[in-house]
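Notebook entry, structure prediction.
Reason for the run: the old model in the group folder had no record of what sequence produced it. Starting over properly, with the input documented here first.
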Amino acid sequence: MAGFFREPDRRQIHLLPVDMLEWVPEDDIAHLILDVVEGMDLSRFKARYQVGGVGAPALSPGMMLAVLIYGYSHGYTSSRKLERL
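New structure, fully documented this time:
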C-alpha cells in the first residue's frame, strides 16, 4: 500500500470544524492574547520558513507565540509541561 494517501478519519466526533473559541469563557485571557498576537508583525519569523520542503508543514509562528504567552501567564515555563497540557 502506498504511503502518500491521506486517509479519512471516520471516527470524527463533529461533521464540521468546531469554533474552539466558543469553548473558552469570554473573560479568559486567551482572547486578549490572540488579539495582541494577531496584531503583531511576525513577517520576519515567517520569512525564515521554506515553502514546499520535506515533511509536514510548520506550525504558525503566531499560534506558537500565543501558546507560549498563554502558558507563561499561567505559570508554565517548561516546554515539556506546555506540550503535555
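Summary: The CA atoms of residues 53 and 59 lie 13 Å apart.
The old model has been moved to the deprecated folder.
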